[in-house]
Design a protein that fits this description.
Layout lengths: L1 H33 L11 H13 L3 H15 L3 H17 L3 H17 L7 H11 L4 H62 L1
Helix pairs in contact: 2-3, 3-4, 4-5, 4-6, 5-6, 5-7
């Protein structure tokens, strides 16, 4: 009798373990299939890529949505509307996932673009969305991004000034070279005139 109860417990435990393993495998399979990223067709339009990204995000596949928005910016980023949409939606995904360190630089860039643009130059709706998501960023992260941007701006200014100084130095060097060449020609002419004058005597 004891042996029978022991066997039943053993069978129950084995059955439970088997079901647990099968369930884990099934969930992993479902999760993996949901997280796959279907390649974007080479001839996909900007609207089609945006739709792919929205469908992926609605299905809970933020990884695929992220890749699609990156592809949108890469392929159609020269179009200002597509650039704004792709960059904002990418930042929005990061905000949703609380990856504020990734979202903040993008939102700062877009916010600066809206602040320096004229009315109608950029899609107005996204300007409001950018401001809303920027307000969700922790202040410490904002301050860090702003500081880095200010340092980068100073670095760019310094590089521009150095480049301008070098350009002017090269310009004046070239002018001096031309002047030296002109002086040389002038000296040759004077020497030739003197030689001719002496020959006539």
């Amino acid at each position: 009798m004891k042996h029978s109860r022991f066997s039943e417990k053993k069978v129950f435990k084995c059955g439970f373990c088997a079901r647990s393993i099968l369930t884990a495998i099934l969930l992993t399979s479902i999760f993996t299939s949901c997280m796959t990223v279907t390649p974007v067709p080479p001839d996909a339009t900007d609207r089609e890529i945006i739709q792919m990204a929205q469908n992926a995000f609605d299905a809970g596949n933020s990884r695929a949505a992220e890749e699609y928005y990156k592809t949108l910016v890469k392929r159609y980023g020269t179009n200002i509307n597509d650039y704004i949409i792709g960059r904002y939606e990418l930042a929005h995904i990061y905000v949703k996932k609380k990856k504020y360190n990734l979202a903040a630089p993008i939102l700062y860039e877009l916010n600066s673009a809206y602040e320096s643009s004229l009315p109608g130059q950029l899609p107005a709706d996204y300007g409001k969305l950018v401001a809303l998501d920027w307000n969700k960023i922790p202040q410490a992260t904002k301050d860090e991004v702003i500081q880095k941007e200010l340092e980068a701006e100073e670095s760019r200014k310094s590089a521009d000034e150095e480049a301008y100084a070098k350009e002017m130095e090269d310009y004046y060097t070239e002018l001096q070279s031309i002047q030296d060449e002109f002086d040389s020609w002038e000296q040759e002419d004077l020497t030739e005139e003197e030689s001719n004058a002496q020959a006539e005597k």
